[in-house]
Design a protein that fits this description.
Elements (H helix, E strand, L loop, with lengths): L3 H7 L5 H8 L6 E3 L5 E3 L2 H6 L6 E7 L9 H14 L4 E5 L4 H5 L7 E2 L2 E4 L1 H5 L5 H21 L6 E6 L3 E3 L9 E3 L10 E3 L1 E3 L4 H8 L3 H9 L2 E5 L4 E3 L6 H7 L7 E5 L4 E4 L14 H10 L2 E9 H16 L5 E6 L1 H7 L5 H19 L5 E6 L6 H13 L4 E4 L1 H4 L5 H13 L14 H13 L3 E4 L1 H12 L30 E10 L4 E6 L18 E2 L5 E2 L3
Parallel strand pairs: 3-16, 3-17, 4-15, 4-16, 8-11, 17-18, 18-19, 20-21
Antiparallel strand pairs: 1-2, 2-14, 5-6, 6-14, 7-12, 9-10, 12-13, 14-15, 21-22, 23-24
Helix pairs in contact: 4-17, 7-8, 7-10, 9-10, 12-14, 13-14, 14-15
């Protein structure tokens, strides 16, 4: 079979105005970025605000392999399948980060015959949103250091500067750095760190803002440092909000593209789910729900990360009510969680699936299992998963949207429509915001992860006390944790029980509106693998790119 990029190049892409018309957008609401991608004016939201909401479908997965389980591919393929059933459908996914693209996972635009196009543009610089977020973030870091250099009117304690710098490339050497070296004219020396752009609080703010005014209000609340008497210094204090908002004026607008089969797709924002909240923008989701009868979106990694955060943070912020969940399962992920390569490993891996389905049940949303078929899977292996789902009275469908496009997801789409028709969502949150911080953390850790207890370092205890002093203790929780295990230990596979979760520290994302407990060895700046994907990426003299899958 052709590579993803060869398949994408063979498709005759429709003009973006045709896609906009199909989506129900007007010509003056589209800001073209070339012929095949566009920004959407926020004015469109005002025009369609009284439209009835469509069905909201979330795609999640079990604990994945390092290569991923095709969740984005399934999201795209399912939207194409629903369109083949004559349902007015749109989808929303996150913008790819150059970190994974140049690192381990490669491109993030789907695969095979379930891709969003133009894939090269989307995977690389797209419409510049990542760069705008990076620039706005680093402007604030620069203004903070500049304030200290020019006299420090706030009496900032350089030991408690909490605003990092960001870069949309994985670079472990930048995790801990010292800036300001070189003498008095080069600033004030202090320790600093870099995070990857998807971990930036500005990324989270952009993805949770309702409009430009809300964006500016959230930006103003960002805490960048503390004074010697433990008072927070914010972006508003540094008079940074206006300039940051200007840098983000286009980035806040959703991006419109299309799938291989011409289904309108919104791609906007790209927070990771292991270190941030892991879903595309609230603006794009609300827009898609008003324009389509079925809106399919994804949440990063397993249900214990992206799905939990989508339910408890995004849905709470945007007053969303999901109608159904697609649980993506692959045989290779079951084998990984079953700690082997044979048929017994598939059976053992079902305990991981069982926990993820249990997690969805805590929120009252009906679920359906999508068995994502890979070429190496055997019929016996697939049958084990089908029999398991049948025994649990969970609807399931084998899909092959990678090889067949929307046609390969028809059974899943049909069962999904039937499920939503016959079973109404009874969606609710996992915890009450008024609960103490530790209670909220422990509810997630014990119910969703299966932990036996949560322990806190001295630093984490101090963070909790400060959080309460600042009045931030009523915010939702966004736990940073490895994606490869239900625990905070990436090597603890399957369905571990009674384990310990260690909270090292808690970061305050006051602008985004959540608290980030850092657990285990998770870091906000990933490193590259021994053989990064970038080694295979190239361009020829005709401008043809290769190696993006």
């Amino acid at each position: 079979m052709k590579s993803d990029i060869e398949i994408a190049r063979a498709v005759k892409i429709q003009n973006i105005f045709e896609i906009a018309e199909k989506a129900g957008l007007q010509k003056d609401e589209i800001i073209p970025w070339g012929n095949h991608k566009a920004k959407i004016s926020l004015a469109a939201l005002d025009r369609i605000k009284d439209n009835k909401n469509g069905k909201l479908i979330l795609v999640t997965t079990i604990n994945p392999t390092p290569g991923g389980e095709g969740k984005t591919t399934v999201t795209i393929g399912l939207a194409q399948a629903l369109a083949k059933l004559s349902k007015k459908t749109m989808l929303g996914i996150r913008e790819p980060s150059l970190g994974p693209i140049m690192g381990l996972k490669g491109g993030a635009t789907g695969g095979g015959y379930s891709q969003v196009l133009p894939m090269e543009d989307i995977n690389l610089h797209f419409t510049g949103d990542m760069h705008a977020i990076t620039s706005a973030h680093n402007l604030l870091a620069s203004l903070l250091d500049n304030h200290i250099h020019h006299g420090d009117a706030f009496h900032i304690d350089p030991r408690y500067i909490v605003w990092p710098r960001v870069l949309d490339i994985s670079d472990r050497a930048l995790r801990n750095v010292v800036v300001g070296l070189g003498g008095p004219i080069d600033g004030v020396p202090h320790e600093d760190e870099f995070a990857i752009t998807p971990a930036s609080e500005i990324m989270a703010i952009l993805c949770l803002s309702r409009d430009l005014n809300d964006l500016k209000e959230r930006l103003s609340k960002i805490i960048v440092a503390y004074t010697y008497d433990n008072k927070p210094v914010t972006a508003k204090d540094l008079k940074a909000v206006g300039a940051m908002a200007v840098l983000l004026k286009d980035a806040i607008k959703p991006n419109l593209v299309q799938t291989i089969e011409g289904v309108p797709a919104l791609i906007h924002g790209g927070p990771f789910a292991n270190i941030a909240h892991g879903t595309s923008s609230l603006i794009a989701t609300k827009m898609g729900l008003k324009l389509a009868d079925y809106f399919v979106t994804e949440a990063g990694f397993g249900s214990e990360l992206g799905a939990e955060k989508f339910f408890d943070i995004v849905c709470r912020t945007g007053d969303l009510k999901p109608d159904a969940v697609i649980m993506v399962v692959s045989i290779r992920a079951l084998k990984r969680n079953g700690k082997g390569e044979d048929i017994d490993a598939v059976k053992n891996g079902l305990f991981n699936l069982e926990k993820h389905l249990e997690n969805i049940s805590y929120f009252g949303v009906p679920a359906i299992v999508a068995i994502n078929h890979f070429t190496e899977d055997t019929e016996d292996e697939i049958e084990i998963v089908e029999d398991y789902c049948k025994s649990k009275n969970i609807p399931a469908a084998v899909i092959d949207v990678w090889q067949q496009g929307g046609e390969g997801g028809i059974e899943l789409a049909g069962k999904l429509v039937s499920l939503m028709h016959n079973t109404h969502s009874k969606f609710h949150y996992l915890y009450d915001l008024n609960e103490p911080i530790k209670d909220k953390i422990e509810t997630i850790a014990m119910k969703i992860y299966g932990a036996g207890r949560v322990v806190y370092t001295v630093t984490a205890e101090q963070d909790i006390n400060l959080c309460m002093e600042l009045g931030l203790d009523k915010l939702p929780i966004c736990i940073a944790k490895t994606q490869y295990s239900l625990s905070d230990d990436s090597k603890l596979l399957g369905r571990p029980e009674g384990f310990k979760i260690t909270v090292r520290k808690i970061k305050f994302s006051a602008g985004a509106g959540f608290l980030v407990p850092m657990t285990g060895k998770i870091t906000t700046m990933p490193g590259l693998p021994a053989k990064p994907t970038s080694e295979k990426i190239d361009i020829d003299t005709m401008g043809n790119i290769s190696g993006l899958y």
